Prior knowledge:
It comes from uncultured Frankineae bacterium. The protein is of the alpha/beta class and 466 residues long. The protein folds into 4 domains: 3-72, no CATH class; 85-219, no CATH class; 232-260 and 292-463, von Willebrand factor, type A domain (Rossmann fold); 265-291, no CATH class. 52% of the residues lie in helices and 9% in strands. Strands 5-4-3-6-7-8 form a 6-stranded mixed beta sheet. The protein has a two-stranded antiparallel ribbon with strand order 1-2. The longest helix has 33 residues, at 176-208.
Amino acid sequence: MTTGGLVDRQIGFFGALREAGLSIALSEVLDATRALGVVDLLDREGLRAAYAATVLKRPAHRPAFDALFDLWFPPVVGDPSARSADADEDGPGEAGEDGPADKEALRGRLRDLLLEGDEEALRRFARETVRELGRADTAPGRQAWFSYRVLRGLSPETLMASLLEAMLAGQVRGGMAEKVARQTLSERIRSFSEMVESEVRRRLAEDRGPEALSRTAVQPLAEQVDFLRASRNDMAELRRQVFPLARRLATRLTARRRLGRSGRLDFRRTVRASLGTGGVPLVTHHRPHKPHKPELVVLCDVSGSVAGFAHFTLMLAYALSEQFTKVRAFAFIDTVDEVSRFFTPGVDVADALSRMSSEASLVWFDGHSDYGHSIEQFAARYPDAVGPRTSLLILGDARNNYRATAVPTLRALVQRSRHAYWLNPEPQAYWGSGDSATGAYGDVLEMVEVRNAVQLEAFVQRLLPT
């Protein structure tokens, strides 16, 4: 590949990274282009490292980066395993002209390779098995590649018993040795599965072009996953990102405050300084700028699928508690309870959320969302919670099961507060449909669509004053 062709590939690769959600500035693109002049272009892993060093900002983005890099800069081109010296050297098991591949022979070779642990040999074998087992004719004259056909045909997980028996020959079963061996073999099987999936993506990219495959090759980044559609693993990853996100936000806020405007004009100091210039105030002096730290009150619906969004936002609010004078949290389903007591300094936030779910009094009647009753109870039981320095956040999808909305009570709370916002994790297109009371509540306070961590981060920066 020429340098010009490499630059064209680089442009397409960075475009795919941006479509996947990674933020890449023009200056970083220029840095990556300069890096091409100092790395060996034949060293693929060196090129990968150079690109990662110039454009990646977060470790969580590395899997998406690697998947797209393998599409745009594949390790091989074409079908090197077909009738090659490597294939002949590997022994029997490949498909001949007369019939299909011998799956049992392939399983035997896979077993031997897993025992040996030779990563490069496993990678060559993955290419061969994709060629033998992964191809399917989806239409006349058109073929596609599928990793599940390979993994289903070889069933590497079912080899575990014989692999353990071979690896632990002569050793006592059930002890630490078996545990270590099982973990080692599991990692090798997982690595082989990833090699198969990578080879399938490479072949699909060759057939259709990397541009078409880039859109579906990587899963959305954790911070871009909708709260209401997030899986258990997605939410676990989001919770791991809470404190790094809070640190980034706090650092940005500190920098903005440091570089922000000065306080009010210090008239006396300005006049004194002007005496040295004949009474002309060439230099003005200002009082130190003291940014206002608001109080924060969070009132959140923790019912059903909205609970994940509420938990993540509560964790972020408490991670940023130093940026507020005071943080108080209230949760509700069909009645409300203050849950600030679960978030004492130094407590593990996951434990606090678990205790909140089991110990807080959140159900009054039937356990279905009742915003109206919860708002009325909040105003009656906690009259001192909202004041002129309070930023009030209400979290929920506003789906009220066609019950009373308590709009007058909410309006009184909003009027007492300094700021009031409603964060809704539902797409705005769904607002007002069915039992949604967004229309009634949206007339009282600003309702903001916050479907993922990226939108939440943007809102928090807007909430925190400079």
